[in-house]
Structures are given as C-alpha cells and as structure tokens.
Design a protein that fits this description.
The protein is an alpha/beta fold. Helix content is about 35%, strand content about 10%. It is built from 13 helices and 10 strands. Keywords: Oxidoreductase.
C-alpha cells in the first residue's frame, strides 16, 4: 500500500473513506451548510478518517465546508483534494486546465479553503489533453518537494497515462469510478496500478445510488441532478438496469446485510489496494456504509456476484458523449 495511506493502518482507521462531493455538488440542491457541517462532524465521530473533496465541487464551496468542519482534527485525518478542473466564474462552466501555473494556484487556494498547510493526497482531476501529463505531474511533484502535498494522485486516467505519469513522478493513487456495475478499471488500470504500487481509490462505489436501491425512478430526481443526463439512468435504459438488481438484492438478504454494504464488501474483496470512498448526504447512510469495513465475503459469494451486472448486461454508457470527451479511462467495446 502506498505510504500516503500508511497512516490509516497505523491508527487502525477504516480503509473506507468519505466522498464529500454529494454535500455540495452533483446530486441536486446543496445541503444547507449547518446540516452539512453536522454531517461531517458526525462522520468523524463514527470513524471516518479519509475525506475526499475537490476544487470543482460546489465551485469551491465543498472545500470551504470540509475545511470548516475538520479544523482542529487535521492531524487525525487523511485529507485529499483535486486540481485541474474548476468552475470558471466568468464563463459559468467547468474548465479543465492542467498547466503547472494553474495547478500551483489551485493548490495554494485549496490549502487556504481547507485551513491546512498541506494535503495528504492531491489529484489531477482530469487529464488536460492540451498539456503533456508529464508537465502536470511534474508540477505536482514539485508541490510534494515543497511540503504542500504528501502524495500525487490522478483521476479518471487510463493505464497508458499512468505509465507516462509515473515515469515523471511516483503516483500514490488513481481515482476512478469502480463498482459492480462500472468495471472499467478491470480492463487495464488495476493491473497498471499494481505494477506501480499505486492505490485505486474507487469513487461512486454504490453506482451513484443504483446499487443501494435508492433510485426507483430517475424522473423523480431534481433537475440539477447529474444522473438525469447519464445514459444508464435514461427512461430507455433504466428499467433494464433495474431488472439486474433482483439477484443482487437476494444475496444481500441471504447474508443479512444492506445492498450498500454488499456492494462495498465486493469492492474490498478485489484487493487491499482498492479503497472505496462512498459519498452520502445522510449520516445514517454514512454509518451504514462504514459498517461494511468488517464485512468479508467468501470466494463463492464473490464469484456469484462477479457474474451479475457485467458490462454486457448493463444498459447504457456511464457518461454522455459530452462528458465522455473529458474522460481518459478505458471503455468497454
């Protein structure tokens, strides 16, 4: 396991982390600040120690929220954020910019918002196709040398990009969407991560709520919810995907666990170097997810689950064409 994560083991902290995005970004209206602060306080109290945010989330609001909530607890947590993708206030839209100057500026701004002098892990949020990955990673490496970050991460990149990046500077973690119904990292990225001693941090490990059984009808989601524009949640594809959940729910029932816990246990069964960071707007669900830390699946159950929701069974791509244009990860045919 890369050294940036070793502190979690030293203090016997859970390997399941908390994705903080949901509180401010992507899933409808942001949670009111007072409620979000209480949720993050309780997340710490129930045991979370790995907190993940980004410059992009809520147009920097999520970093400010996390910084305020976790102030005074900094030496007890692993704090991760991301650069290279932000909301341009003048354009009113997200912009991908992996230039070294921008990375430095965003890092220094993130440190102020997060009320800290360093980040344990700092990801390049998206590959900037106009900037060689070596230049972006080189800039991140210099931030390590200056003590502003402890480890370099990449997000939504391919195995090829990881190979190029690690030749410039060691990569502590790659963050990629990974769950039972999104298995793209299995094409090439997991093997590349293991070759490089790089952790795979799995975001959306609950399939954006799908695996939790939380989305009965995508039409009921808020207009600003990102899932309304994702092909898998379309009126055409979602009924077919819902039909895949039955067998999965049966296994959860047989084991006496919730669907969310089963989905997280399946991910953890893929290897100690796979680190799920489920997000939630509910403390109850945060507690439920963290309970999966001690759940272990036997080989027969893992094999049974592996046959469910395979790429050829799932209906629809995970991103729209416009969203996919910004993604570097390998895709199934």
């Amino acid at each position: 396991m890369p050294s940036v994560f070793s502190r979690l083991k030293e203090v016997a902290s859970p390997t399941i982390g908390l994705g903080c995005m949901n509180l401010s970004h992507g899933y409808g209206s942001p949670v009111p600040e007072s409620e979000a602060l209480r949720a993050l306080d309780e997340a710490f109290d129930i045991g979370y120690r790995h907190f993940d945010t980004a410059t992009l989330y809520g147009a920097t609001a999520n970093e400010r929220l996390v910084g305020k909530a976790l102030e005074g607890k900094r030496d007890q947590i692993l704090l991760a954020s991301k650069c290279g993708m932000a909301i341009d206030p003048q354009l009113g839209k997200r912009v991908i910019d992996g230039r070294p100057k921008t990375i430095r500026q965003q890092c220094e701004a993130s440190l102020k918002r997060l009320r800290t002098d360093h980040l344990d892990l700092y990801y390049l949020h998206r590959l900037d196709r106009q900037v060689p990955i070596e230049e972006s990673v080189g800039a991140l490496g210099r931030l390590v040398e200056e003590g502003k970050i402890r480890g370099v991460g990449l997000s939504e990149v391919s195995a090829t990009t990881l190979h190029r990046a690690r030749a410039e500077y060691p990569i502590a973690a790659v963050q990629s969407e990974y769950s039972m119904w999104t298995r793209n990292p299995e094409i090439a990225l997991i093997a590349a991560c293991r070759e490089a001693n790089t952790a795979l941090v799995a975001f959306s490990p609950l399939g954006r709520g799908f695996l939790a059984g939380a989305v009965k009808d995508p039409a009921s989601l808020e207009e600003s919810d990102m899932r309304r524009n994702m092909p898998r949640f379309s009126a055409e594809n979602y009924p077919r995907n819902l039909s895949l959940l039955g067998d999965f729910m049966t296994v959860a029932s047989e084991l006496g666990v919730t669907p969310s816990q089963l989905a997280l246990a399946w991910l953890k069964a893929q290897g100690d170097d796979v680190i799920p960071i489920p997000g939630s707007r509910s403390v109850e669900h945060m507690r439920e997810n963290l309970a999966a830390e001690t759940l272990r699946l036997d080989a027969a159950t893992v094999t049974r689950l592996n046959a469910m929701m395979t790429p050829e069974q799932v209906a629809g791509a995970r991103y729209s064409e416009a969203q996919q244009a910004d993604i570097d990860t390998e895709e199934f045919a």
